[in-house]
Amino acid sequence: MEIFKAIRTLINISLLFTVGLVHSQDQASITNTCAYKLSFVSELDPIEINRMHSWTIHIETLTGIPVEGAAITLEGGMPEHDHGLPTSPRMTAELGSGDYRIEGIRFHMSGVWEITATIIIDDTHNLCVIPLEL
Amino acid sequence: MCHTFGTLNKTVLTKKKLINVLLVLLILGFCLWFYAGNKPPYPWTADEIKIIETLHIDSLPLVPKDLSNSISENPLAAKLGHSLFFDTRLSANGKVSCATCHQPDNFFTDKKTKGMGIGSSRLNTRSIVGSAYSPWLYSNGRKDSLWSQALSPLEDPNEHASNRVQIAKLLTNDSYYRSTYESVFGPLPDLSNPERYPAKAAPLPGKLGTAWQSMSEQDRELITEIFVNTGKAIAAYERLLVPGPSRFDSYVKAVSENNLKIQEQSFSNSEIRGLRLFISKASCIDCHNGPLFTNNEFHNTGVISSPTDTPDKGRIDGIRIVKTDIFNCMGVYSDDLNQNCEELQYARYNMPELLGAIRTPSLRNIKSSAPYMHSGQIETLAEVIEHYNLAPLSMIGHNEAEPLNLSLFERRDLLAFLKTLEAPLSTHQNWLISPTTNPKNSL
Prior knowledge:
The structure holds 2 protein chains of 2 kinds. Helices cover 17% and strands 46% of the residues of chain A.
């Protein structure tokens, strides 16, 4: 039991940390475990719940070169709740210079969200996690 | 003899003692209950104030545009819709109108377990107040606009049991309807030839369907166009039904302005604690968020079906139905020429979490809209709170909510808070009574 609690606290702290990171850099640069650096700009800034909006996601290599020709899918949910996103967002355009347009994003609760962007380039899938607190 | 007497006396004595002890306990219990009710709550933190301000009625934006209905903001269309909403001639027996189930005096619900028209509706009547803010209508969201929704009860055999030819004929024969319709939508055709237009027909099973099939495709199209416009006019009226400021809203305003006197006048200590539970420990605000107290999304909250009903599959059915509905935003009757239809395009479907998921209802005026839940399963607000406190397993799908472990005192506070959301609509009174322009209704 105690160990369980400790692990949970640890997870919470680390989550808080990553979330803090996103916030402090104005939701622009994102920590990830994938092979790329991701950042996004939301059309709705600050993001509000219950409003449909779009994002522009920017992908570059770890050395800072914009990545072109990628396909992106977004999924996500709330780790502390039992549900995913209320919509199925889709990539609708590659805008050039490593920028991609994702439409159909909406959040329906405040709290901690975790968005997973799957970036597909030449059949390799990269899972990049975007933490977010609303 | 004497011996018997003694024991008797003893029993009487202990009984008396017991009663005294019980009495003292009762008084103590009452004091505790009273004290707990009046114990001053903690002051609000800055973060909490931000949260409760998101629930304030002033954060309600204007009713969002409906691109699929080009006349949705036309005042004359709203007037036409107003008459149609109250007109019982739009039914098989001349006795049922939208207002039969959506009663203005009951915040557009009917106090019944299930709606009662020509027959019994499948589910509990939902309010229409604030519905124009929702991308989806009905508890499973099987409609994606107010106009498309309005067409459904008109031809539902258990609700109005009318049909589109009869309705089109009413619009062309009634002089008020005819002139108003023509000002809004353009000229109405001549439907007087019974060979071309039978008295009753609709694309439904049975006699109505046979009559419908006997009509030419062009004539069927003509009728359906008028039917759709009927829905669009009703929708223009329904957009006007928005909630007004409640005691809760006065309290929040007083908190924002740090006006202690008004805070004290508008909210009791118990209600303040209830509000705090709502936004924290009880996490009601997760789903009942924003100024309408709903995110208009679909959640499985494990509400048990009535014994006579099969469990409602909720959103998993709703999204399947709306995707193939010819009256949806992408269909030919939609005015959204660019086919934007974001909601439909980006909707989720076929996901396990949609099984048994019901659209979150607004909690404004919740005290006056019993019974509760999608098929009126729960009678009282206290029982609703009890339901959330236990968070039972779902009969279908998976209950998202967890047991809350609220004490007796906490449940009382939460209940007191829920009752502060009562208020007359901000809609002008004239819209809330049957219009007299329609001779049938002024009788």
